[in-house]
Amino acid sequence: MSDIKKYIEANKDRFINELIELLKIPSVSADPAYTQDVLNTAEVVKDRLEKAGCDLVEICDTPGYPIVYGEKIIDKKLPTILVYGHYDVQPADPLELWDSPAFEPVIKKTELHPEGAIFARGACDDKGQMYMHVKAMEYMTTTGNLPCNVKFMIEGEEEVGSESLGWFVKNHHEKLANDIILISDTGMIANDIPSITTGLRGLSYVEVEVTGPNRDLHSGLYGGAVANPINILTKMIASLHDENNHITVPGFYEKVEELSRAERDEMAKAPFSLENYKEALDISAVYGEEGYTTNERNSIRPTLDINGIWGGYQGKGTKTVLPSEASAKVTCRLVANQKPGKIYTLLKSHI
Amino acid sequence: MSDIKKYIEANKDRFINELIELLKIPSVSADPAYTQDVLNTAEVVKDRLEKAGCDLVEICDTPGYPIVYGEKIIDKKLPTILVYGHYDVQPADPLELWDSPAFEPVIKKTELHPEGAIFARGACDDKGQMYMHVKAMEYMTTTGNLPCNVKFMIEGEEEVGSESLGWFVKNHHEKLANDIILISDTGMIANDIPSITTGLRGLSYVEVEVTGPNRDLHSGLYGGAVANPINILTKMIASLHDENNHITVPGFYEKVEELSRAERDEMAKAPFSLENYKEALDISAVYGEEGYTTNERNSIRPTLDINGIWGGYQGKGTKTVLPSEASAKVTCRLVANQKPGKIYTLLKSHI
Q1: B150 — phi, psi (to 5°)?
Q2: What is the pLDDT of residues B294-343, one digit of tens each?
Q3: Which residue of A has its CA nearest to B212?
């Protein structure tokens, strides 16, 4: 263990600078304006995997953004670990909430990070974590300590639903064969509590557009007599939860596994302070599905959230318009046994 | 009457060109970016009133945009007509729905306008109508036909609630004294049906902002456990109408006058084709308060419409964000006896 600490100390500045270079590239997969940056990031990841000691590194085409695959096979009889990570990031907006530009990384000490931490979009989702595994590999190949075969699969569409990942996995069974998968994209309960994540919620994402009259109308001349797409959209969205915050889409909970009392008691032992949670978010109360705790609501229970909504006049001042259309982006977070395609169908037929 | 027709023929091109010049100025009162344009428009209106024959024209300061006042007093014993109009316009967006730029007027023949009409923001609300009265005045002063005293009061805040107009009227009782008020800002039932407007709905406008956590959150890590401002806002808005599309704000209908059966029968005689109405708007059905016809819903009944809504991610693609805030602009259209201040208070305490 002291060897690895020495290696880290000796290479610390290089490690940080390399990570900062990676964080500077705005690999926003959601926005086509950043296509070239996403592709450039894949190239940089390829280069880093080669330098970390992989024997073979490939940028693999997919129907979407490419997946960077790397491997070092030292002995086919030894176990193989597959490391998963992603090189794309979320859009940086709302920009006004950043203290420093999202793609100009800065190192700052804060109350939560007394030793300093890098602040940039992607620093902890997921370039930082992915990079940690690349550097662990570098240490082990450089010092001859690698005890197993290693494969890397780093994708570029995690933030937009990982559609090509499923395609890639289906089409490359042999290449990806492994004994253990190590995921570089989870969290820890606390800085000093080692945590094993045994499951994560999935996703079903839809965009709803409500169109009404063929043009924006004057709310004085037409208001009250013509359906207003925003009024209709809000009614539609509001109807998706009942008064206990249960989701009302018929069939939505059909496959949801109910945890036993014992399992829920075990979960409740994880360190968690509701007061700290509320304080960190500046909220006076938590909110969610009746009958479940905060930690249950954000882990074992499926959800339905509106991620964005827009329609009508959003500028300064007043405009008495009855708009022609309104839209919303809707995500369902799904738990074990819920299939995104099925949930999409249920949601669509309910709306 | 043939004199006026001759005068119009002789001056038609000048009339149209002058109106087009006026329409080119983007006097958008809602958006502070256009402040100078709104002020410039007041100057042009002043100039036109002087040229139309007013003896006295003033740009009168108010707490907001100025009001252009003009008068021609030919004999104090004769009746005085006060002409009201406004020189401000609505914002031009959504820009993509314009066939030609909003502030570059074009003359086009269409099915509805076989003789051609000017298309520009403000052409029929309200620069066109106001201008018609200015030119009628010009004709009468130029030809010595003016049979009465005339006053003009042209404001610049009609599209943002006319707040300074109330102030101005209160502070200039004597200046505005008149026998008849002629309003340049109403419509006609049809091009060949002379119409007298005896009442118009008023307005109460509020902006609602719902704030939740102090930053945008990851909907996978927090979704379901923290109140989502968009979900809350949509629930709030949806709750403002019941299943019959009656407004649920307690006390909202308290002062609303109910018309007698005879009055409603009289109203129903006005020419109106529901089929044409739906066709013109490209809608398959009308929608509104149970128990009232379309023409009643948009005239004698108060309404509550959402004019704009926004929150969270509105760009292309997906972003699984649980947003920190969401906002909406809400208008109530009010009928006789409903006071905007009172309705604002009721709405605020209900929300």
Answers
A1: -130, 140
A2: 999 999 999 999 999 999 999 988 888 899 999 999 999 999 999 999 99
A3: A283
3-state percent helix, strand, coil for chain B, nearest multiple of 5: 35, 20, 45
Average pLDDT in the A220-248 region?
Answer: 94
Q: Give CA–CA dist A154/A254, Å, rounded.
A: 34
CB B163 within 8 A of CB B63: yes
| Cα atoms in the Cβ-side hemisphere of radius 13 Å centred on B25 | 21
* Whether the predicted pLDDT of A1 surpasses 60: no
Map residue A297 onto helix, strand or coil.
helix
B 286-315 residues with CB < 8 A to A: 286-289, 294-295, 297-298, 301-303, 305-315
Both structure tokens of A105: 């990384």
CB atoms within 10 A of CB A9: 9
CA dihedral B54, B59, B60, B66 (to 10 degrees): 130
**Between residues 50 and 89 of chain B, which touch chain A (CB distance below 8 Å)?**
none
> Are the C-beta atoms of A232 and A210 separated by less than 8 Å?
yes
Question: Cβ contact (<8 Å) for B297 and A225?
Answer: yes
B124/B49 Cα distance (integer angstroms): 19
Share of chain A above pLDDT 90, in %: 81
Residue-wise pLDDT tens digits, A273-283: 999 999 999 99
What pLDDT was estimated at residue B85?
Answer: 97
Residue-range domains of chain A with CATH: 2-183 (3.40.630.10), 202-256+302-350 (3.30.70.360), 259-299 (no CATH)
Q: Is B349 exposed, middle or buried (0-12, 13-18, 19+ CB in 10 A)?
A: exposed
Given an 8 Å threshold on Cβ–Cβ distance, is B309 in contact with A311? yes
From first CA to last CA, the distance across chain B in angstroms is: 57
pLDDT at B195 over 80: no
pLDDT at site B111: 81
For residues B324 and B216, give the distance between their C-alpha atoms in angstroms, rounded to a whole number. 5
Question: Going by DSSP bridges, is the β-strand pair A202-211/A325-334 parallel, antiparallel, or unpaired?
Answer: antiparallel
- The model's pLDDT over A104-147, given as tens digits with 9 standing for 90+, comes to 999 999 887 888 999 999 998 999 999 999 999 999 999 999 99
pLDDT (mean) for B196-213 = 88
Distances (CA, A) of B97 to A201, B104, B113: 41, 15, 19
B122 touching A, CB under 8 A?
Answer: no
pLDDT per residue as tens digits for the range A64-102: 999 999 999 999 999 999 999 999 999 998 888 899 999
Is B10 within 8 Å of B60 (Cβ atoms)? Answer: no
Alpha carbon dihedral A256, A235, A209, B100, in 10-degree steps, equals -170
- Using the structure block, give the residue that is written with the tokens 């009609």: B158
- Residue-wise DSSP of B229-257: HHHHHHHHHHTTB-TTS-B-STTTTTTPP
